[in-house]
Specification:
By secondary structure, this protein is an alpha+beta fold. The protein is 21% helix and 35% strand. Among the domains are: 155 residues, Galactose-binding domain-like (Jelly Rolls, Sandwich); 164 residues, Jelly Rolls (Sandwich).
Length: 468
Amino acid sequence: MKRFSLFALILIFPLIWISSQGCRTVATPSFPLIPTNTPTITPTFTNTPLITNTATNSPTNSPTPTISSTATDSPSPTITNTPGGPTDTATDSPTNSPSTTPTDTPTNSPTAGAATNTPTTCSAASVQTTYTFETGVDCLHPDASNTMVTGYGLSSTQKHAGSQSYALSINNTSGGNTNAQFEIAYSTPQNLSGSAITVFIYLEAGLSGSAGFQVAEQNTGCGWDSTWYNAPATGSWLQVVLNPSTAGCSGASTPSNATQLVFQLTNIPNGASGNIYIDDISITLPAGPTATPTSTATAVVGSSFYFDGGSIPAGWSLISGGSPLPVTLSGPTLEAPGYAASAGAMGATVTWNAINQNAAFQYAYGSPTNWTALGITGFRAMVMVNPLMDTGGGMQLYCQSGPGYSWENSSWNNQPSAGTWVQINWVPPFASGGSPVSVQQFGIQFATGGSGSAFNTDTIFVDSVELY
């Protein structure tokens, strides 16, 4: 019984204590709020991370100026300036070297009178008969005295035939008119006697106002044997021809000992700037009648006239026009020698005495002729006057076709220097009623033009008429 009572007390006492706790009324339900308020105060701890900013500011501010200033200021100028020196040195060295040395070497040697004395690696060893400038400049270069020449080389901007020509860039800042000369030098004298030297030239508008163009051969007998042409109109090709002669230099010329060929654009106005293009230089040596090698078009077999057979071929006649007509007209006759020292040429004597007079060598077909079927697209001819017709004369090609004899003509070509052969070339457009399948006649017309004076009696010549 005592054991039970003790055991019971042990069990009951905690229950009574627990029960008393549940029945107590305590007016402090604020205990749970303490932890709640405490975290609310934790912005103190949130602010504490501001130390992080301190830490952040410290390493950021510290290394940034230090690293930046030290690394940038110190190595940057040093490294930049150092390569600047070697770069300038390297650039100046190779630029000045090739620019000055190679250019001056070939340019200085062929200066007039010095070609045979100081041959260069670019001097021609023999006569090259054709220069097309498709693959190289072939030793054609500016003279050393040409301070206004700013560059030269091959160009596809303008070309007479093929895909390229030779271009010479000119900028005249000399303060006065000056000449631009370029040349081909021979390492040993060459025989150009009886030859015909032709070249096509083209001027850009920036060189307008230049006085003229001339081709010359320099030989051991005298300094200059040349032919002079008025400068061509800008934007069009002009062919210039030189026939070297012993009559040059008052009879002292020796074309059998030519030392160089010279090409010169003369009296270029101060301030003029632009390119002159040169193409299709040919040197025809006296080996009988030959077609002019300056055009890629091939003459149609049976449709060319060289006037070397001892008589004028049938179909050719001499006609005239104008009001008044030329005073006298005599021809056509066979003249000798012809172009390139050939056996003959067709000629006529004309006395001019007024503007707008003309005389023409005309070929008439017996019936309309189909040029298309024959493979003919155009024609060309070598022409010459001696002396000049007047102060404003020139030549043009023409044809008449179709049932109504529709007239078409080429552009105007100023007459060359007296006694000088020049080629004129034309592809008829066959417009305004013309037809290539019904060509009636074609010809070469010489005229005094609309503003000439000082009229002469002269001989007009035609040779190497080629239909192609």
